[in-house]
Design a protein that fits this description.
Layout lengths: L4 E3 L6 E4 L5 H12 L2 E7 L5 H12 L3 E6 L2 E7 L11 E2 L4 H11 L6 E4 L10 H9 L3 E5 L3 E7 L8 E3 L5 H11 L5 E5 L7 H8 L5 E3 L2 E5 L8 E3 L4 H13 L4 E8 L6 H8 L3 E10 L2 E9 L20 H9 L4 E4 L12 H11 L3 E5 L2 E5 L6 E4 L4 H10 L7 E4 L4 H4 L3 H8 L3 E3 L1
Parallel strand pairs: 2-15, 3-14, 6-7, 10-11, 21-22
Antiparallel strand pairs: 1-22, 1-23, 3-5, 4-5, 7-9, 8-9, 11-13, 12-13, 15-17, 16-17, 18-20, 19-20
Helix pairs in contact: 1-2, 1-6, 3-5, 4-5, 7-9, 7-11, 9-10, 9-11
The structure holds shikimate-3-phosphate.
């Protein structure tokens, strides 16, 4: 299905907005609840295609799951040893998180399985999980070049591993921790830079001991997860579009409600503040083991900055919209150390540089980032390359462009942000399906 957005220039964003539930946490809530003992209640679940794909995989693995209904899901946990052979190929849709985390979990089961996905996902690298899982004793076949589908054979008892990740990836870390639940001994994963720690936090919420120290996470295999209730906060990655939109559009003021502010995800706030954004964090609290807060954003003039490398993994999914912020900043913004952007739902360095150039912005891609000189932005037609975050980032760019922007290939916005067009329009973006 082809979906395009048509966005008229100008306008401002105003009001109180609650964006949908966190995608990373929603995936993990279904995964861990499925292998826990007892019934877990999830609220605030993201009813987007990615998280639904994960839910359907667990149904195929024999887990009873009721919902989602208004973000509420009931998972009747099957226990660590209760998953059943699926009897069909498991479809992860567009979701790298689903495929990589499931690879870890399925590698430890006593039955064969096969994981596939859509055209985009079938171009994404899987050796990063297949290699260390193989070192644990798993039997995983990828297609040529380490790409999906993944064929996973029934394993005997896995061996624990100590693994230093060559790329800072929460998906790889989580896959190994999930496999480690079934392994003999202590599995430890060391990361070169901090990555999102939702898996560790949620395992603890399910009563499973996990030790995190000096950039290494360890757990012992053979324990038990006990059902619990999980409250999923609003996704900071979805909130980021409104943070940037309200910053660049004069006369804006929005309050983003109940946003997950896990420090391993909050890099976007620090980066936007460095650029001069007016972001206030209000009403900080803890919900479901994760820090949450409301974020008030008022329009502000931005300046170009060199983005500190340490913030890159903490804002990795927000770069499409941060590049849009840079396009409207005074001076030059330089991003380095972000080569991972090349293997996301699209090559976000090339695709964003190409789109910004079409709008008249001087954007030069580099191997591991981009240089962007802020300036006047015209309208134009943008190819999102089926990347949800690219589509939403360019939609926000229209708030200060001199002409209308058309964004092509937007169907995948439904993977992470169902209802984006209606919510953005109600806040003041002049967007419609076109
Ligand atoms: C995710 C980890 C990140 C992120 C992705 C979600 C997760 O990927 O980009 O959108 O939920 O663990 P990497 O692990 O590849 O960095």
């Amino acid at each position: 299905m082809t979906v395009s957005y048509q966005i008229e220039p100008g306008g401002a964003l105003r009001g109180r907005i609650r964006v949908p539930g966190d995608k990373s946490i929603s995936h993990r809530s279904v995964m861990l609840a499925s292998i826990a003992q007892g019934v877990s209640r999830i609220t605030g679940f993201l009813e987007g295609e990615d998280a639904i794909a994960t839910m359907n995989v667990f149904r195929a693995l024999g887990v009873r799951i009721d919902g989602p209904e208004n973000g509420r899901v009931l998972v009747h946990g099957a226990g660590l040893r209760g998953l059943r052979a699926p009897g069909r190929v498991l479809d992860c849709g567009n979701s790298g998180t689903a495929m990589r985390l499931l690879a870890g979990l399925l590698a430890a089961q006593g039955f064969d399985s096969e994981l596939t996905g859509d055209e985009t996902l079938r171009r994404r690298p899987m050796k990063r999980v297949a290699d260390p899982l193989t070192a644990m004793g798993a039997r995983i076949e990828t297609s040529d070049g380490g790409l999906p589908p993944l064929r996973i054979r029934a394993a005997g008892q896995l061996r624990a591993i100590r693994y230093a990740m060559p790329v800072a990836s929460a998906q790889v870390k989580s896959a190994l921790l999930l496999a480690g639940l079934y392994a003999a001994g202590e599995t430890c994963v060391a990361e070169s830079a901090p990555t999102r720690d939702h898996t560790e936090r949620m395992l603890r919420a399910f009563g499973y001991p996990v030790e995190s120290k000096g950039g290494t996470v360890c757990l012992q295999g053979g324990g038990t997860l006990t059902a619990t209730d999980i409250e999923v906060p609003a996704d900071i990655s979805s909130a980021a579009f409104f943070m940037v939109g309200a910053t660049i559009a004069a006369g804006s003021e929005v309050t983003l409600e109940h946003v997950g502010l896990n420090p391993t995800r909050a890099g976007v706030i620090e980066i936007l503040r460095l650029m001069g954004a007016d972001l206030q964090v209000l009403n900080e609290r803890v919900a479901g083991g994760e820090p949450v807060a409301d974020i008030r954003v008022r329009s502000a003039r931005l300046r170009g900055v060199e983005i500190p490398a340490r913030l890159v993994p903490l804002a990795i999914d927000e770069f499409p919209v941060l590049f849009v912020a840079a396009a409207y900043a005074d001076g030059e913004t330089v991003v380095t150390g972000a080569q991972e952007l090349r293997v996301k739902e699209s090559d976000r360095i090339e695709v964003m540089a190409d789109g910004l150039s079409r709008l008249g912005i001087a954007a030069s891609p580099t191997l591991d980032g981009m240089r962007i000189r802020g300036g006047p932005c015209r309208g134009g037609e943008i190819q999102s390359h089926a990347d949800h975050r690219v589509a939403m980032a360019f939609s926000m760019a229209a708030l200060r462009a001199s002409g209308p922007i058309t964004v092509r290939d937007c169907a995948n916005v439904a993977t992470s942000f169902p209802g984006f067009v209606d919510l953005a329009r109600s806040a003041g973006l002049r967007i419609r399906h076109g």
